[in-house]
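Handout, section B. The chain below has 669 residues.
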Amino acid sequence: MQGDTVLVLGNAHLERRFRWNGGNLMTLSLEDRTTGAMFRSVRTLPDFVFTRNAAAAGSDGRLTVDTLPATACAPASLRARVEYTVDGLDIRREFRIYADAPAVACQTWLRLAEGKEAPAAVLDARGGEENAADRKNIEAQADMAVKSSETVLDRMSLPGVHWHARAVEFSDVTDWNDNLVWERDIIAYRKNSYRGNLLFVRNGVDGNGFFFLKEAPCSAVQLAYGRGDFTADFGTFAVTGVGVEPRDLSREWVRAYGVVTGVFGEGELAALTALRRYQKQIRAPRDGRDEMVMMNTWGDRSQDTKVNEHFCLEELERAARLGITHFQIDDGWQEGKSPNSALAKGSFRDIWANPDYWKPAADKYPSGLDPVVERARELGIEVGLWFNPSVQDDFAAWEKDADALLGLYRRYGIKVFKIDGLSIPTKRAETNLRRLFDRVGEESGGDVLFNLDATASRRGGYHMFNEYGNIFLENRYTDWGNYFPYRTLRNLWQLSRYVPAERIQVEFLNKWRNADKYAGDPFAPAGYGFDYLFATTMAGQPLAWLESSNLPEEAFAIAPLVREYRAVAADFHAGIILPVGEEPSGRSWTGFQSLVSDAEGYLLLYREAAPSDEGVVETFLPEGAKIILTRVLGSGDRRVRQTVGRKGALCVSLPAENSFVLYKYSLEK
């Protein structure tokens, strides 16, 4: 391909055109084929920038197009692979297009070109650009120039000056953070940087827009991080920071952070739906694998003092009475002792100096895990385990870790592993961790699901590693007085606007424990019904973070609710779940809407300690539509007919504070 050759990528929903430029692609246009909106570039700049001379035409550019068949975790997709060389670097960019998503995903790999020891003039994403506070007054055209040393994953350069944007930043490390989503609204002016994994850009003239999703950890823990994740400069928008430094480069391919570009029409629902339609392609749910009501006993703070065969067998009996589907044994099942052991403080250093580290502890499980696994299967429960990969030396022992996980899968049929203790300080660590996950996934035929802990350290956050399982969101304990049901609900509610709720494990605890630690607190867990605590987790994957042996008999009265929820959970989670109503505060009317189709879905609504029996909840339903609501779970009227008000408003009636209702709705024709 030479000269002015144009590469066209797209599906029924969008089309993106590039100037070939020897493989060093430059976007010419992005079209929303649903609305007809066209975004045309006014500057032909390279979409990917890693070196100072990156605008040059690529050499040895080549294109390969193929179809990737559906796997156990993802639907079929079209893949366009572009490879070229520039500035002493071989660059490979793979574009993925799913039939049902109005978006194009791009994954980039880098390596040193043959015979090169270092690339030419790599940009330093950590610094070099002047601080905005040091810029001079603008009195002439030349004063507007801004020197840049940013690495760029993707960009759009568009005409006009009436561009509105929203940057969304996320926080994990949830042992330390209870505010997980940060939004910043922007009218693009002169060049400035913004943090976040998401940038929604809307044309103020006609309301149409596009989004960038940076598939990377949260901003605070990314590799090779500079001043931000995005820049906005009038109509020019770029995704910055590729997550690779010069020292990471060799003759082996190294993977940069990913980027997704999507299009949407007018309105908030259009933007959020476009994003979610892509996110739902990354890991397609499979019957019997992705839905779970899990119990993990670590939430009652016994740590590893009780964990043994007898304890697990007794817990299983009560878990079955509750309706639990997965029983996960946390730290303490294994022969090796971790630093969190209350019995004998161990270490994660040199794990493989003990070849039996990841075998069942002989003194606790004299017959291995067989009695526990077999009884669980008789009760219709899957057993899961906690696992901490060998973090030292950038996961250099990843193959041994993979062997251990696959051994447990093959020996006992363990399919769900909580992955804890991760730290990803280097690109090598990230690469080895992917190798671990990929090998286990491939050799288990996609059977194994990882619960990826987001509570501490440098991990994948909410937008990386999504293909491997779900997110273990947070540790909260009544022992420490930091479990408040409305705050757990708030975290799920805020995240669900931008992260699929069905991929998030959310905890409910034993409300009867440690009541003295909440004396006089109006939002103490003991003030809520146990059924309500379970209901606060239903938009996600419920996690009973407790020992069932510590529950009073009255707790088991939620079993019918759990059973009925399980019957509808897969259909509820199949929809696009978005937050509705007010932000949970302990006194609000709030909830979630699952849009299963244009005409059907679910509304999961909560009345917190709001003073009136009736409230108004704004939803994503169309104004003026006639709607029928049929109660599936909870309190409230069995059947309701209403006309949807302004901003999707519905009148809701619930008879008691801290109560809930799950409605299935349909729009009348």
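Note. The chain has three domains: 6-129+145-282, 297-567, 580-667. Compare this with the example in section A.
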